[in-house]
């Protein structure tokens, strides 16, 4: 999942970016409202962490512009103001949640999980495909009850695919959601990681979960004859 962090306190911005990257998110950071809107024009995000008091355009202006553009991605407001009136103003402006500084990073992570669940219409942190379960809160993947160790990018790709189970995902969509603006890797990285994922999830001769749609991309779906789950 890809998150945009908009915070003009540079130390806090960098700390949030590093914390989210450590948790497996693809993260871009910027320091003012105008830069935030440029980022949002150039990429698709699964959520925005948006400070209220920003240079050039404040958080309310950025959020207003997002909603005028018809973008319904989740937005978590950050602010040092903790009055009820300020929280009401932020929520009425279209924010999905509101977090007061200083905050605990575990609470920040929990709120990100909650607002992204809300966007996908899910009430759970667990998703399944075949006999594979992905616990997005603990970042644990199991197959038939046995834990499967994954590299960070392998997990990120699987989480993105399982959240969009049954949908064909293009290479561009995968790269856009898994890597940030600083990504300058090989164009076949997706192929490499998907090959590793297939071996770990399907094994030799196991039921196929990840399918290639030639000329289009890939799809994650339950084995033939098994109903949709998760």
From TrEMBL:
The keyword DNA-binding applies. CDD domains: REC_OmpR_DrrD-like, trans_reg_C. One of its GO terms (cellular component) is cytosol. Transmembrane segments: none annotated. Residues 2-116 form the Response regulatory domain. Keywords: DNA-binding, Phosphoprotein, Transcription, Transcription regulation, Two-component regulatory system. The modification 4-aspartylphosphate is found at residue 51. The keyword Transcription applies. This is Stage 0 sporulation protein A homolog. PROSITE patterns: OMPR_PHOB, RESPONSE_REGULATORY. Residues 124-222 bind DNA. InterPro entries: CheY-like_superfamily (IPR011006), OmpR/PhoB-type_DNA-bd (IPR001867), Sig_transdc_resp-reg_receiver (IPR001789), WalR-like (IPR039420), WH-like_DNA-bd_sf (IPR036388). May play the central regulatory role in sporulation. It may be an element of the effector pathway responsible for the activation of sporulation genes in response to nutritional stress. Spo0A may act in concert with spo0H (a sigma factor) to control the expression of some genes that are critical to the sporulation process. GO terms for biological process: regulation of DNA-templated transcription. Pfam families: Response_reg, Trans_reg_C. It comes from Candidatus Acutalibacter pullistercoris. Residues 124-222 form the OmpR/PhoB-type domain. GO terms for molecular function: phosphorelay response regulator activity; transcription cis-regulatory region binding. It comes from the Bacteria.
């Amino acid at each position: 999942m890809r998150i945009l962090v908009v915070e003009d306190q540079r130390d806090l911005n960098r700390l949030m970016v590093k914390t989210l990257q450590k948790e497996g998110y693809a993260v871009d950071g910027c320091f003012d409202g105008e830069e935030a809107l440029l980022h949002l024009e150039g990429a698709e995000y699964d959520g925005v962490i948006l400070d209220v008091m920003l240079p050039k355009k404040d958080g309310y202006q950025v959020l207003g512009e997002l909603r005028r553009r018809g973008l319904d991605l989740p937005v978590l407001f950050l602010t040092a103001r903790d009055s009820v009136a300020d929280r009401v103003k932020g929520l009425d402006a279209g924010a999905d949640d509101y977090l007061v500084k200083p905050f605990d990073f575990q609470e920040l992570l929990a709120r990100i999980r909650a607002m992204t669940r809300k966007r996908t219409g899910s009430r759970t942190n667990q998703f399944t495909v075949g006999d594979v379960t992905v616990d997005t809160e603990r970042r644990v993947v199991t197959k038939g009850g046995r834990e499967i160790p994954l590299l960070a990018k392998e997990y990120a790709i699987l989480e993105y695919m399982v959240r969009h189970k049954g949908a064909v995902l293009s290479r561009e969509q995968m790269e856009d959601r898994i890597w940030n603006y600083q990504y300058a890797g090989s164009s076949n990285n997706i192929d490499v990681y998907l090959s590793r994922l297939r071996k770990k999830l399907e094994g030799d001769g196991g039921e196929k979960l990840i399918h290639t749609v030639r000329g289009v991309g890939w799809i994650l779906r339950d084995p033939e004859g098994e109903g949709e789950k998760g």
